[in-house]
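Input (structure):
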């Protein structure tokens, strides 16, 4: 099984509202939780109780579209509000990510890293030291994982920043984006993923659910084609609609019903009837 490491801050963890998009259920998408590979359900990067939709689910769904019958694992290690300093080589977030990745590598082949971070460094001229710290992190990750050529997909910060809500404080996001682009274009096996056209939650800082679905597709395009993604993809809207209409497998249908029962959304009698119907192929 291939696996993907998620690192960065809240827009990688995901803050898109769950109810704003159709859920992605796929028995071939696993997430590492409590040391086990479990079937993915959003929020998959549970760094906060307010976690929601991020880019990883659509990334993984697109991967399974291209690799029918194969599974992919997601290693969630993003931390909301974290600055680049907290991703220092000896920092707890970096150590945790490396630990989780090494654990995942016991049962999977780590194939890539998704990075999205910088909102917390988009003020106070922090951009002046950002590039050096980012390069140091990437070098350290590759060395610690013994994966010198592992591809790293670098997401651009939202163009909506610096205008309203919490995002208003990220006034220097353009300077951070210039650095992210520079690193992606100059470092080996690093690929830039544009945030062009993506929109925000009402808070002005977090990418909304529909845009996160699109962002995940762009991350996958960069990963699968090993190229920079500098514009939106023509397939984005159609892909989202097609995925929402995807027929669930037997195991996925059981997973959905089991979740609803566990959340108290149906009685045991109704749950039993629905599971029996699924097992009978109805």
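Output (sequence):
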């Amino acid at each position: 099984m291939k696996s993907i490491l998620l690192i960065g801050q809240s827009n990688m963890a995901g803050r898109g509202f769950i109810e704003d998009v159709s859920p992605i259920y796929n028995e071939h998408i696993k997430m590492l939780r409590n040391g086990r590979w479990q079937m993915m359900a959003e929020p998959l990067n549970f760094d906060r109780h307010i976690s929601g939709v991020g880019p990883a689910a659509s990334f993984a769904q697109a991967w399974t579209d291209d690799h029918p019958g194969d599974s992919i694992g997601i290693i969630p290690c993003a931390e909301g509000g974290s600055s680049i300093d907290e991703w220092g080589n000896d920092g707890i977030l970096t150590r945790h990510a490396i630990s989780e990745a090494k654990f995942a590598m016991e049962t999977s082949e780590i194939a890539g890293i998704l990075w999205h971070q910088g909102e917390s460094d988009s003020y106070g001229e922090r951009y002046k030291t950002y590039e050096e710290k980012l390069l140091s992190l990437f070098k350290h990750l590759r060395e610690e994982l013994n994966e010198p050529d592992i591809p790293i997909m670098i997401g651009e910060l939202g163009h909506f920043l610096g205008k309203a809500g919490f995002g208003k404080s990220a006034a220097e996001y353009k300077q951070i984006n210039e650095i992210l682009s520079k690193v992606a274009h100059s470092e080996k096996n690093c690929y830039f993923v544009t945030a062009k056209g993506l929109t925000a939650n009402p808070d002005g800082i977090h990418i909304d659910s529909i845009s996160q679905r699109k962002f995940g597709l762009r991350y996958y395009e960069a990963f699968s084609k090993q190229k920079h993604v500098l514009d939106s993809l023509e397939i984005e809207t159609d892909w989202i609609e097609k995925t929402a209409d995807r027929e669930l497998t037997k195991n996925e249908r059981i997973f959905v019903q089991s979740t609803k029962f566990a959340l108290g959304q149906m009685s045991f009698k109704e749950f039993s009837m629905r599971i029996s119907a699924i097992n009978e192929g109805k």
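Notes: The first helix runs from residue 10 to 13. Residues 10 and 80 are 4 Å apart (CA to CA).
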